[in-house]
Write a structure and sequence with these properties.
By secondary structure, the chain is an alpha/beta fold. The chain contains 16 helices and 26 strands. Strands 3-2-4-1-10-9-11-14 form an 8-stranded antiparallel sheet, covered by helices on one side. A 6-stranded antiparallel sheet has the order 5-6-7-8-12-13. Strands 18-17-19-20-21 form a 5-stranded parallel sheet, sandwiched between helices. Helix 4 crosses helix 5 and helix 8 runs parallel beside helix 11. The longest helix is centred in the last third of the chain and has 21 residues. It is globular. It starts with a strand and ends in an 18-residue tail after the last helix. Bound molecules: 5-amino-5-deoxy-1-O-phosphono-D-mannitol. 5-amino-5-deoxy-1-O-phosphono-D-mannitol binds next to helix 8 and helix 14.
Length: 612
Amino acid sequence: MCGIIGCAGRTDDTLDVLLSGLEGLEYRGYDSAGVALANGSLDVCKREGEIERLQRAVDDSLDGADESDAGGSDGGGHRGPVGIGHTRWSTHGPPTDANAHPHTDCTGDVAVVHNGIVENYEELKTELQARGHEFESDTDSEVVPHLVEERLADGASFEDAFRAAVGRLEGSYALAAVTADTEAMLAARSDSPLVVGVGDDAAYLASDVPAFLEYTDRVVYLEDGEFARLESGSWTVTDAEGRPLDKSVSRVEWDAEETAKSGYDHYMLKEIHEQPRALRKALRGRVDELAGSVEVASLAGLSPSSVQFVACGTSYHAALYGAQLLREEGIPAQAFLASEYATAPAPVDDDALVVGVTQSGETADTLSALREAHRRGVETLAMTNVVGSTATRECDRTLLIRAGPEIGVAATKTFSSQAVACNLLASTLTDREDAREVVGALRDLPGQVQELLDDSRAGQVADRFLDGAGYFFVGRGHHHPVALEGALKLKEITYKHAEGFPAGELKHGPLALVTDETPVFALVTGDREQATKTVGNVKEVEARGAPVVAVTDGVSDAGRYADEVLEIPETHPRVAPVLANVQLQLVAYHVADKLGRSIDKPRNLAKSVTVE
Ligand code: M6R
């Protein structure tokens, strides 16, 4: 939640770096944004709304500054060696100009951006107000610049003042601060991500790598309790007492092209189309097609007696699917919503495994569940997309899904890659009789997704059912998680009501809602017992006048009872849900597009949810 960008050392284009960094971070929050530049004086510009509004405000103030040849008080004179920026997802106070970051102190000389929640802010604010500090926002974050201000007034250096201010905070934070008269930017983290980018002449700071990937692929991940100082071409990391730490610089494999829209109207559509490539990457070097075997180095020696998955949202749906695969192999496995894990029974056996499925590796609920697993003494595995994320650093093992950067708030390619990773995990832990068939189906999957993308009728289906009063998604077994995921995707980006069920549950209540205005998407593949039963459910809704869309490989006669058919290629039953899901992603995308929704940044949401 909220995105932070900072840079030191780019004298000519600091503001451009900040604004384009904020665009790259908009998926983390987009209800207001702001920048501060330090260059002898401090210039702050911030606006409610998307970054475009901030950009316009900055342009206007620059025009004004050019005409008068002087810096304005609200964004004028934007040239400076050190700058910070922020894009906000509101927690304390509505999205307004005043609540947007950066926040400043009473003198206007200290500016701070914050991601996280200062839990003791009310107490600190009362204390500061009693000493005469005036506050301009409803945010918890604004206490920080005032705390820094007090120490500076006592004669402390910027670094000591910042360290002391941070020492007063309880809660979670990624912070960056600048003052008018210093050329350094200071940063600190606890439970919210921050990464330093190491350039040749400049240093960068961000909540996430894509914000500065254009300038450098060399990064230093900050850990909880660490402080960073960034100056023109140099950076240092220290502990809470100011002792220097020896941090290693890693290289990220993503390139800037992967974080651009590349001609697509939306990141979501681009990411849907990237699935064949992402799936190939997920499999590369990990499967032996001839032997039908799977070998993933990070899973070597793993042999848990039971597995618990913890995850949220789309990742939870992948976790449900993964738990099913393991149970089919005789391994007791369950998926838990991470936010509910505290009440879940602890695994009874010593050699259990808890798998955190998380695209970002930063979701607060999932991290909290993984920490609970640690407290319970259980081995943990992070199944994630982001190298160096908190989940990878805190878990005992990591299984990377290798989907590449996902910018759209709606998770698409990462679900498919998570599903493949679940198959890799299941195949590693067990010996299936049909292992070769599963590996063969996984190998064919990228090509089949491509085929589906080339021929999909999802756009026509979206056209026909645009006015639905509600949408239902049903499937059994492996298709149950995809029914849930299809509904989540549709509601998230179209703002239409949608629900997913196991097909058998329809008649136990939801059927009362089914009318000729509620399209029902039925996922049916193969012709086994489950498919036959789902076809029975399709007939039930059809008899009640509901339009039916069958997502099917055509093996059963589901299509005969459907108003529309979305075809998927035939494959192994384990792999079919991934293909079915791609059709549902496209339906959600096209409905949202035709309704003119904000597809990549749906209202009220953020890509990475770093608060519980
Ligand atoms: O980064 P994570 O996978 O941990 O995120 C979990 C959910 O917040 C995420 O999947 C969310 O549900 C998506 N926006 C759904 O498209």
